Amino acid sequence: MLKINNLHVSLEDEDKEILKGVDLTVDAGKVHAIMGPNGSGKSTLSYVLSGKEGYNVTDGSVELNGDDIMELEPEERAALGLFLAFQYPIEIPGVGNMTFLRTALNAQRKARGEDEIGATDFLRLVREKAAALKIDSDMLKRPVNVGFSGGEKKRNEILQMAMLEPKICILDETDSGLDVDAMKLVANGVNALRDEGRGFLVITHYQRLLDHIKPDVVHIMADGKIIKSGGPELALEVENNGYSDLLDEAS
Amino acid sequence: MEMSKHNTDAELEVKKSTVLNSGWSAKARSDAFDRIAKSGLPTARDEYWKYTNPKTLTNKIVEKASLVTEHESDIFKSVRPLKIVFVDGKFSPEKSDKLMLSGLSIERLDTIKKLDLHWAKELYGRYEKLGQLSVSRPLAAYNTAYANEGLIIHVTDRVERPINIIYEHENEYSDVILHHVIKIDSNAELTLLESGAAAARLNQVLEVEVNEDAKFNHIRVLGRDHERRAATHIFGELSRCSIFKSFTLTVNGILTRNECFLNIAGDDAMAHISGACVGDGDFHHDDTVFVTHDAVGSESRQVFKKVLRNGATGVFQGKILVKPDAQKTDGYQISQSLLLDDDSQFLAKPELEIYADDVACSHGSTSGAIDEDALFYLTSRGISKPVAIDMLTMAFLAEAVDEIDNDNLKDVILELLSGWLERRR
Question: How far is CA B303 from CA B75, B196, B258, B300, B389, in A?
């Protein structure tokens, strides 16, 4: 489904290479986790995949279901089914959450040649999905993420994911800033979306999120590369011993 | 009497003999003439015209303003207003509704010349003259001296149905002077809507007296003709517990100077002046606002938002003057621009002058581009970049548009704004 091949990326305004040859394939129906120390390039990978400006791809390729997506605009990637749950969701004063959700959903449908969703159907859908995430109607009415607590912002990300039904979901430190209850709520939201047709790339610092979202594969990223891949037990190893052993092993 | 101070050959004629000898208003006109004779017409050298060159407003020759094909006569139709139409500054009885509405009387400046309308006699030019005390406003004095058309409205009750003055522009070289006077009695209320391009060149004065516990609600939309030029002045006087609210939307216009001078003379009165403008290319828009607090416990707000692109220019000069006895004044002023490219510019001069010691006043002015993080967030959800930019632009304008109380009228303004943005995607 998502195929990252020898991806090299540097920052646009300084000649600094952040990703130094990332190889990673996420198959449909699978959950892959990426762990790694600060500054290893995890968030950069999520931004580059979703099309944020400010990065130069100097080598390599990324395919989503066979389409090369690196030349595409963020909205085109979204329409192909790529979704990034932000580590720090952006507050947008003056843009209502509902308007935002409906505009996004219909833009994607239109881009895929599907019919736009009507107001009534949209309302029913959003209420149903919001209820599962304990997002009340007040939160839906407010401007996007404005005045939301850390937990509310992350739940709002998962609500967007549930509404847009992407094919590949990238979760960038979705557990950061969450207490245990909020993390369970978010994890339940993610697990509800797990199915055969959908792949996940879960970026996290901590094993605890992976207790709730069980990964199929765990990758360790350091200095812009995947240095080790394995099963869920790899995350436990990190939790117990930290990264130093793995880093030594790699060098 | 010839103008000697600014002796440019092409300026408007300012001769006492050319002032209308018009009965009841003769004294006011003669006084106004003396004011302008003293000050001269504005020039680019005047401090108050530092950011806006008045040359094309004072030139004898009127620059051509092409006509947009569609009229904007019906933009306020959802609130079913009483329509009063001026075509290139001339009142049109055919296009207008009958000038009758319960709770007010409407006279025309050009037809009451012979009458001795006492209250109007006292009012015509009075607040314009007051507005000259702080800063000279020669175009307004010129207007008082020379205006031949306009409305004289006396509101005696709470009038629910709005009045919509519609200014149609049909002559590419029309040079129009309009002077309206509105007196709102105690406990009375009026909603005034204005719309349309009016003329190739418009000089307009609106004088409003808002008496105790009265309310004036004003929404105007300056017409879309790209090449039109306008200098407008609002002069308002607020009595105790009165409310004055004015919102102006400007889309297009090669040159617009909107001055607003309010004197809060009664305790616990409230004045809100706001505006949104969107300009593309050859667009120069100047809001110059002066609010004087001369009473206890009054509140004023100035909220102005400008969206500028392709080299458009926005200007804001805003002042809050708090006189020594105007304790408990609450004054707020914000002017912001959203610059959609590097060629556009916003020039702002916010001022506070406070002589009372127990007041809360704040002002702020910012200039910025589209927030790239917000833009990425929206596009990452599948919203195309042009649509996302429009969403963020509308969000930026929201604070000014939210100053409009009436939801129907707010929707009219929002629709005009989003339509303008969509056409430019």
Answer: 23, 22, 14, 10, 22
